[in-house]
Amino acid sequence: MLLDKPHASSLPCLAFVLFFLPSPILCQSSSGFSFLKISVDAKSEGLSGAYTAMSNNVTSLYWNPAGLAWVNKKEVLATHSEWLLGSRFDFLGVGIPLSKFKGSLGLGVSMLSQKEQEGRDEQGNKTGSFPANDGALTLALGRKISLSSQWGMGLKLIRSQIASDIGQGLALDLGVRHGHRFNRIPLTLGVSILNLGPGVTFIDEPTKLPLTLAAGLAIESWGAFALSADWRYRVDDQKVLWAAGTQYSLSPGFSLRTGYGITDKTGEDIVSGLGLGFGISLRGYQLDYAFTPMGDLGNAHKFSLGARF
Questions:
Q1: What is the pTM of this model?
Q2: How confident is the model over 298-309, as pLDDT tens digits?
Q3: Is 20 exposed, middle or buried (0-12, 13-18, 19+ CB in 10 A)?
Q4: Of 40, 114, 268, 282, which is most buried, counting CB atoms within 10 Å of its CB?
Q5: Which CATH architecture has domain 14-308?
Q6: Is residue 188 within 8 Å of 175, Cβ to Cβ?
Q7: Burial of 252 by CB count in 10 Å (0-12 exposed, 13-18 middle, 19+ buried)?
Q8: Residue 133 contacts residue 115 (beta carbons within 8 Å)
C-alpha cells in the first residue's frame, strides 16, 4: 500500500507501523487500530493486564464498563506513557456517579501520537514530514443489578490519521461483573466484549477493529494481597492472551505490583510480557507507575494520576 499523495507516500509497511503500532508482530495482525489494545492506566499495566474483573473505577472504560457501577464519587484519571518507537500514549477519563440510576457515567479520551514521519514520493524523493495519530472517545454507563452484580455498556468513536487521510468508525463495549464468596474467599468474575463494530475504511481499504472477548477472576481482599487472572481472545487475530497479576500492600497508602502475560498466536512463537509497578494513595489522590520491558521494541513507562472528590 502506497500513500499516493506526494507529501506522504511511503513503503508498504509504513502505514502498518503507524496504523497498527504497537502490535507485537507489527505487520502480521488481521485487525487494525491496535492502539485500542493499549491499557489506559499504570495500575493494570503493572499487573500485566489481568484487570477485567478487578477494574472498578474510571479505568473500566477500557477494561469492562460494568466496573463503572462502583464509582460512588466523582473521579478523574490522567495517564501518560512513553510508548514504543518514540510514540506517546495519553488518556484522560472522568467518572460521575448517578445515584438514581444506581450506577455511573464514564467519559474518556485516549490518544496515540507518533513522531513526525518523513514523507517520500513514488520516486523515493523526500517531500517533507507528516503527522500520524490515533484516538478514541468513549462514553459508557455502568449499573448495579444487585449488591453483587453489575452490567455496563460503552460507545466508542474511533479516529485515525496519517497525513491528510482520516478514518473514523464506531464500536460497542459490553460487560458484566459478579461477586461471590467461595469458602469465605471473596471472588469477583468479570466478562466483557470489546470493540464490537463493523470496522473502518482507511485509505480505501476496509480494516477490522480488534474485537476482543475477555474473562477475568480477582481476589481483592485476601489480607494485604490481591490476585487477578485474565483470559483474552483477539477474534480476528486468532490470538489468545493469558495474564496473572498480584498486588501487595505494604501499607494502606503504598502498594507493589507485578504480573506476567503470555500471548499465544496460532502458528507463531509465544510472546510473553512482564509487568512491574507501584501505587501511592493519599487523601483521595492516587499515583501509579508501571514499567514494561518490550524486548527489541524498547521499554514502556506509564504514569497515572487520579483523584476522587
A1: 0.81
A2: 788 899 999 999
A3: buried
A4: 40
A5: Beta Barrel (2.40)
A6: no
A7: exposed
A8: no
